[in-house]
Amino acid sequence: MTSPRVNLLDFDADQMAAYVAGLNEKPFRAKQLMQWIHQRGVSDINDMSDLAKSFRATLLDKAEVLSLPVIKDEHAADGTRKWLLDVGAGNAVESVFIPEDDRGTLCISSQAGCAVNCRFCSTGHQGFSRNLTAGEIIGQLWFAEHLLRNDPNAIRRVEQYPTPGWEHTGRVISNVVLMGMGEPLLNYDNVVTALRLMLDDRAYGLSRRRVTVSTSGVVPMIDRLAQDCPVALAVSLHAPNDKLRDQLVPLNLKYPLRELLAACERYLPFAPRDFLTFEYCMLDGVNDSDIQAKELVRLLANIKCKINLIPFNPFPESGLKRSSAQRIHAFASILLDAGMVATVRKTRGDDIAAACGQLAGDVVDRTRVRERAVHEKQIQHDHEEAADSVDDEEEQEYQPEHPVQWLKRLDG
Ligand code: SF4
């Protein structure tokens, strides 16, 4: 039986060097491979013309350059482009390219589905399927970068709005954010390998300031990231206190705000832009009151940060609504008046469901989250009916549908 070929996209520079050494080839062959694959976007080993014929024959036998097959390629009216990518076994993930005047940002996924199960997130409602490999993560950048280099619209935009340090590279993607499907820090090793490739001059050469990891707050891994690969950090906060955050971001049950913010303070000296970003999804009547804005000011008073207010993108299963534009404005004003840096995120790609929190792909619900949620909702409903009959006056609280099952998966 022949052993499966290795995917050369899985290797960062050191791993590629080790692989090439294992084939008894000289170290410069690893550099050549990195350039062919990541800088020139070549996947056919036969086309890597300056590799010795014998080396190419060895590689053809043992290796390949394999990115995720594209199921769907959608273009939004505002230039946003979204790809649905096949990760096998009936699952798919999404990547989104967001062109702006001074940058081209690629939002990529790190897991098929997500176990964290944030209340307002479409991906979370799909359940968790599996971690993506390093090759599947960097493969999203590899694919999009080399595809867009042949897209006249994308090229024109780069030429029209050159960004310092980016205009001479011929690259279309200037920024990468790990804000697609999945919690990046729960797929740590593969994510860090992919990050190293993004920063490596022999691959994509992006600056640390232009690569952002977004996390829901995996505290020990925030500390590890500071040591291993300190790129820009965005924290999905969404609530100014533990009581509400426990319900919106169930990871808060494991790492409450006190621990999360302490980890953020420890990360700051390593952060490439000397501030962190906190994301706050604006949910009508849930987390958007004046009182909660003031609470947020107090919570973040000692951390150098920017708060990114994100208008919620509704999806049917959430049962939540977007805060009105006036409410978002009033909330932002309280933050700004208190001297905080706050922005309201523009929604992009609405017409192709490419906006934040809308990335759900077609992930098979392997963890049967939906089925269990319906079951738990029924139990909760029965329980509430019984409780109501005992005490009709008890205050109705905002209830999470399924707050702890992910913890068991996380610990298991
Ligand atoms: S917001 Fe992020 S961490 Fe939370 S469920 Fe969605 S993908 Fe997972």
Overview of the molecule:
This protein is of the alpha/beta class. It has helices at residues 13-22, 28-39, 53-62, 122-126, 134-148, 152-160, 188-199, 219-228, 242-248, 257-267, 290-299, 325-337, 369-390, 405-411, and strands spanning 6-7, 63-64, 70-75, 81-88, 91-100, 103-107, 111-113, 128-131, 175-178, 211-215, 232-236, 276-282, 305-311, 341-344. The chain has two domains: 6-64, DNA polymerase, domain 1 (Orthogonal Bundle), CATH 1.10.150.530; 70-352, TIM Barrel, CATH 3.20.20. The protein is built from 14 helices and 14 strands. A ten-stranded mixed sheet has the order 3-4-5-6-9-10-11-12-13-14, with helices on one face. The protein has a two-stranded parallel sheet with strand order 1-2. The longest helix has 22 residues, at 369-390. Residues 114, 116-118, 121, 123-124, 181-183, 216, 236 line the site of iron/sulfur cluster.
Number of strands: 14
CATH homology superfamily of the largest domain: Aldolase class I
SS summary, helix count: 14
What distance lies between the first and last C-alpha atoms, to the nearest angstrom? 34 Å
- How much of the residues is beta strand, in percent? 15-25%
